[in-house]
Amino acid sequence: MAKKYEGPAIGIDLGTTYSCVAVWQEQNNRAEIIHNDQGNRITPSFVAFTHDQRLIGDAAKNQAASNPSNTIYDAKRLIGRKYKDIQNDIQLWPFKVIAGIDDNPWILVNYKGKEKHFFAEEISAMLLTKMREIAAKFLESPVKNAVITVPAYFNDSQRKATVDAGTVAGLNVMRIINEPTAAAIAYGLQKRTNCTEKRNIFIFDLGGGTFDVSLLTIKNNVFEVKAVAGDTHLGGEDFDNRMMNHFVEEFKRKKKVDISGNPGSLRRLRNSCERAKRILSFAVVATIEVNALFQGIDLSSSITRAKFEDINMDLFEKCMDIVNRCFVDSGMDKSSVDDVVLIGGSSRIPKLHQLLQEFFEGKELCMSINPDEAVAYGAAVHAAMLSVKSIPNILLRDVIPLSLGTSIKGDIMDVLVPRNTSVPITKKKTYFTDVDNQSRVLIKVYEGESSIASENNLLGLFSLSLPLAPRGLPIQVCFAIDKDGILNLSAEEETGGNKKNIMLTNEKERLSTEELERMIQEAENFEAEDTKLEHKAKAMNDLNDYLCHVRKVISDNDVGSLICPVDKLKIYTAVVKSQNLLDGNKHEETHVFVDFLKEFQNMVDSALYKISKGV
Ligand code: ADP
Ligand code: MG
After folding, report:
1. Which helix (H) or strand (E) holds 51?
2. Does 13 participate in catalysis according to the annotation?
3. Is a pLDDT exceeding 90 seen at residue 360?
4. 16 and 31, same domain (yes or no)
C-alpha cells in the first residue's frame, strides 16, 4: 500500500473520561504511550474556563469542585447527538447545556466574565489539540496526522462529528477506527505476533462512558471484525452515579441535609465515589471520607463490594445482554472464542470478571494488556502503517454497527446495508419520479434497527434537483460507506445514454462549512492565547529566578559587601520592584517582565563589573 502521509502520525484515543496518545517508534519497533506535562500517561477529558484562562486535562479536572459550572466533561456523550436525546444526562451535569440551532446542543460557560457557547465538537477539538501538543512536545516536531478512535457503536453522525472535531483541532484525520479494533491490533501485536493460525478474539471494552464489544478473527496480520455490539451510554460514570445517589440518600437520612442541589459538593462526592469504586476492584470494602461535604458537615462512611455490586447489578446484566447479542448477530458460538480480552478502565471490576467467566464457561480472561492504553497503542500502529515505510501492513476489515436504509411509503425502513456488514461497501438503489416534470426528489436516510423508519436515527434529508422529464425517470442513488464507517451519498441520472452526477444536498448536515471555519479560527485564537500565557508564565518565572539569584548575591558577604552603596541602593529598589511586579501585576503584558529583567540584569552586571575591575 502506498504510504501517502508525510510527517509524524499519532494515534489518539479520545475517551469520555480519559484520553491517551501514542506514536510508533521505529527504532524500538513498538508504539510508545506519551506522557502529558504532569507525567501522566492518560489525560482527563476535561476542559475548564475561568475568569482569565482556559484549562485542559489534569489542570481542568483538579479545579472542578471549585468551578463546577464552567468545567466541561462528557463531551463524548454529547457529540453528534441532538438536544432532545441528551435530556437524562443534562440532569446530572453541573454545567449548562441548551438547544442551539437545529436542536444541536450548546454548552454554556462563563469565560473571562462573558457568557460563551460551544458545540461538543469544539470541546472535543480542545482535547484533541491538547493530545496533539503532548505528542508534538515529545516528538519535538509539529504533528498534523492522526488516527482517532471511536466506539464501535458510534453512529454516522457521531463519527462525522469526531472528524469535524479533528479538523477544528488542526489535525489531518487519516482514519477513524473503532476502539475495540484498535485494542485488537495492540493485543495481536503484543501477545500474538506471527499468529498464522486463525484466532477468534472477543474484545470487551468498558470505559467511563461507553461500552463496546467486538468479535474478530486475526490471522497473518489480517484483522477481520465479525460483529460489534454496544451502548454509547454505559460505563464507569454510571456506576459512579449509582454510588453517589446511595451516599446522597444516606447523608439525607443520617444528617438531615440534601446536597443534591449543590454542584461543588456533588463534584467532591463524585471524586470520592470514583476512588472508592477503584478500591473495590481489589478490596472488599472501601471507606469514603469527605471533609465539610456540605454546610461544614463531614461525610464519613464506607461501602462494601457486595453493596456496590447490588446497586449496579442491572447495569452489569445489561453489559452481558450486549455480549450475548454480539454472538447471536455473528452466528458464531461462544465456545469458538480463543481469547477474551478485557480493556477499558471499568473492565477491572471483579463482578464483571465473574459474569464473563460464567458466560464463557470457565475460560481464563486475558487481562495482560494495559486496559487504559491498548486503544491508543493500536491507533498509533495504524497511523504508522499509513505513513511509515518500514512497518508491515495490517489489514483491517471492520463492520458498520447499525443498519442503513431509506424510508419508503408508509414510513417503512427499507434496509440497504444491514448492521455488521463489512466496510468499505457500496450499494446502489434506483428511485423513480412519481409525476411528470418532477423537479425535486427527497430521500430520507436512516440508521437503526426499527422497521418503522421514523423511529430510527435520521441521518440526512437528501434533496435531488432533477431535469424536467416524464414520470418514471430513474435516478440511481449510491450509498458508499468508507473505511471509517462514514456514509457518503451520490446520485446519478441517466437520460439519452448520458450519465450525470446529481448534486445531493444534505439538509440535515450538522455543521456548515462556515461554522467549521469559524470554529477553526476560534481554535487558533485559543491556541494563540495559550501561547501568550505560556510566554508570560515563562517571563515571570525568569524574573523570579533572577530575583532569587540577586538576593543570594547581595546577601553573600564576600560579594555583597563590595558593591558600592549607590549601586546597592539601586539593586535593592529593583528587588522590591521585581517582587511587586510578580505579586501584584498579573495583568501586565509579557514585555513588561522581559524588559524589566533586562534592565535589572544590566544594573547588576555593571555593579559586579565594577567590583571585578576594582573601581
Ligand atoms: P473512557 O475510554 O470511556 O474514557 P477508560 O477506559 O479510560 O474510559 O476508563 C475510565 C473508567 O474506568 C472510569 O470510569 C474509571 O472510574 C474506571 N476505572 C478505572 N480504574 C478502575 C478500577 N480499578 N476499578 C473500577 N473502575 C475503574
Ligand atoms: Mg476508552
Report:
1. none
2. yes
3. yes
4. yes
Overall size of the chain counted in residues: 615
Cα 173 from Cα 514, distance rounded (Å): 19
Q: Which residue has the cell 565594577?
A: 610
Q: How many C-beta atoms lie closer than 10 Å to residue 380's C-beta?
A: 33
Mean pLDDT of 266-293: 96
What CATH number has the domain bearing residue 449? 2.60.34.10
* Bridge partners for 290 per DSSP: 299
The reply to whether ligand 1 has any atom less than 6 angstroms from the CB of 8 is: no
Q: Looking at residue 478, what is its pLDDT?
A: 86
Beta strands 457-465; 440-447: pairing state:
antiparallel
Give 454-507 pLDDT, tens digit per residue.
Answer: 989 888 887 777 778 788 888 888 888 888 888 888 877 766 555 556 555 555
Q: What is the pLDDT of residue 582?
A: 87
Same-domain pairing of 486 and 517: no
Please report the sign of the dihedral spanned by the C-alpha atoms of residue 206, residue 209, residue 215, residue 220. negative
Catalytic-residue membership of 156: no
Evaluate whether 388 touches 26 at the Cβ level (below 8 Å): yes
Does residue 400 contact residue 44 with C-beta atoms inside 8 Å?
no
| C-alpha of residue 344 to centroid of ligand 2, in Å | 5
The total of structural domains in the chain comes to: 4
pTM beyond 0.90: the answer is no
Q: Is the CB of 205 under 6 A from ligand 1?
A: no
Where in the sequence is the domain holding 204, given as residue range(s)? 9-234+316-397
Q: Which residues of 149-158 are buried (b: 16+ CB within 10 A; e: fewer)?
A: bbbbbbbbbb
Q: Could you tell me if the CB of 230 is within 6 A of ligand 1?
A: no
* pLDDT of amino acid 503: 56
Question: What pLDDT, on the 0 to 100 scale, is given for residue 3?
Answer: 57
415 within a domain of the structure (yes/no): yes
Write the residue with the smallest CA distance to atom 23 of ligand 1.
278
How far is Cα 34 from Cα 146, in angstroms, rounded to an integer?
14
CB distance 44 to ligand 1 below 6 Å: no
Any domain includes 4: no
The answer to whether residue 195 scores a pLDDT higher than 80 is no
**Residue 127 in contact with ligand 1 by CB distance below 6 A:** no
Nearest atom within ligand 1 for CA of residue 17: 4
Considering only residues 555 and 226, tell me which one the structure prediction assigns the higher pLDDT.
Answer: 226
- Interstrand relation of 395-399 and 222-231 (parallel, antiparallel or unpaired): parallel
- Residue list, CB under 5 A from ion ligand 2: 15, 207
- Among 206-210, 373-377, 582-586, 591-595, the minimum mean pLDDT is found in 582-586
Provide the residue type at 266 as one letter. L
Identified catalytic residue from 61, 76, 160, 277? 76
Cα(226)–Cα(416) distance, integer angstroms: 19
Domain boundary among 312, 328, 360: 312
Q: Ligand 2 center to residue 150 CA distance, Å?
A: 8
Of the residues 482, 503, 524, which one is the last residue of a structural domain? 503
